[in-house]
Design a protein that fits this description.
α2 (56-108) packs across α3. The radius of gyration is 41 Å and the shape is elongated. It folds into 3 domains: 1-54; 56-108; 109-161. Helices cover 91% and strands 0% of the residues. The protein starts with a helix and ends in a 9-residue tail after the last helix. It is mainly alpha-helical. The chain is built from 3 helices and no strands.
Length: 161
């Protein structure tokens, strides 16, 4: 089925305007390539690459610097991953303990919860003080033994001077 003459006339007269937009874009692209990119490549990039190729010492240093940069980026990514998971588990433990305390208080009641905290807190403080006193006594015994050992050598100390 052929198109009517009016539509054919419209398409033939206005098709150039639709295509001219694309011609302008591609023409601008080739202009940018000709006047901007090619001189930069020819005058700056290519001579620099030729100099790098002709002097392998500089190329080796550049390669080592690139390897160092890439390895530091990978190390940074690993560090951030460990930091993320550590923060997530810490926050999970914190909010989980808050939730558990809330559930405990809800089920037990305020008065009984406060009484439990007082009893178990007192036991924890007593345990802490017993361990502290045991460590302090061991430290004092070690100090006394060191002083006795120094006196046994004529009181001149460790090196005998």
């Amino acid at each position: 089925m052929p198109l009517p003459n009016s539509i054919l006339a419209h398409l033939t007269t206005h098709s150039a305007t639709y295509l001219s937009i694309y011609r302008r874009i591609f023409g601008l692209r080739s202009t940018v390539k000709t006047f901007l990119i090619t001189p930069v490549l020819n005058n700056i990039i290519y001579p620099g690459l030729i100099r790098l190729y002709n002097s392998p010492d500089i190329l080796t240093l550049v390669l080592l610097a690139c390897i160092l940069l890439i390895s530091l980026k990978i190390l940074n990514m690993l560090w951030r991953t460990v930091l993320f998971w550590t923060r997530m588990f810490t926050q999970l433990a914190f909010w989980g303990s808050i939730l558990l305390c809330g559930v405990y208080v809800w089920g037990r009641g305020w008065e009984a919860s406060v009484e439990d905290v007082r009893v178990y807190g007192g036991e924890a403080v007593n345990f802490w003080m017993k361990e502290y006193n045991r460590f302090d006594a061991a430290q004092r015994d070690a100090t006394v033994a060191a002083n006795m050992d120094a006196r046994g050598r004529g009181g001149r100390g460790y090196r005998g001077r």
